Amino acid sequence: MEKQFEGRSKEELEGISLLGNQGTKYKTQYDPSILEVFDNKHPDNDYFVKFNCPEFTSLCPMTGQPDFATIYISYIPGQKMVESKSLKLYLFSFRNHGDFHEDCVNVIMKDLIKIMDPKYIEVWGKFTPRGGISIDPYCNYGKKGTMFEEMAKNRLFQHDMYPEKIDNR
């Protein structure tokens, strides 16, 4: 049975294998090859796409204990967009991956840049406290030689000027 998705041609969906697949396998080791993209039908429009992943987990590389976070990914697409189920499975692949919080958000951003080549992207990890401290790394990127390069610099300089109230997440 061939997959049918309203408004998308077979050519536009070339390379999309996870969406609608009932035999999903959840990888538990970091694997960027899971990511899939599709054509942006509106590449001349500048607009944000935002993903919130409130169940992100990775492992502390020193203790092996789990770290929990909400990962926020916002991007302005260029020609390609990331397919959401592949993104979910990719983020799940960090489950047994040992890396510091700062490394996780930078790796996520770089992997998405590599596969999508967005105009702009930012990744923010809001990790739950361990040992009485939370770590909330933020990174961003604007395509070189475009207005988005300046946008990235300005957003980085203005990032988190008004931190949230303490809520123990």
From TrEMBL:
One of its GO terms (molecular function) is preQ1 synthase activity. Its EC number is 1.7.1.13. It catalyses: 7-aminomethyl-7-carbaguanine + 2 NADP(+) = 7-cyano-7-carbaguanine + 2 NADPH + 3 H(+). It is found in: Cytoplasm. Catalyzes the NADPH-dependent reduction of 7-cyano-7-deazaguanine (preQ0) to 7-aminomethyl-7-deazaguanine (preQ1). Keywords: Cytoplasm, NADP, Oxidoreductase, Queuosine biosynthesis. It comes from Clostridium paridis. Substrate binds at V82, E83, S84, H101, E102. The keyword Ligase does not apply. This is NADPH-dependent 7-cyano-7-deazaguanine reductase. Belongs to the GTP cyclohydrolase I family. QueF type 1 subfamily. The keyword NADP applies. The lineage of its organism: Bacteria, Bacillati, Bacillota, Clostridia, Eubacteriales. Signal peptide: none annotated. Pathway: tRNA modification; tRNA-queuosine biosynthesis. Its main location: cytoplasm. The active site is at C60 (thioimide intermediate), D67 (proton donor). One of its GO terms (biological process) is tRNA queuosine(34) biosynthetic process. InterPro entries: GTP-CH-I_C/QueF, NADPH_dep_7-cyano-7-deazaG_red, QueF, QueF_type1. Pfam families: QueF (PF14489). GO terms for cellular component: cytoplasm.
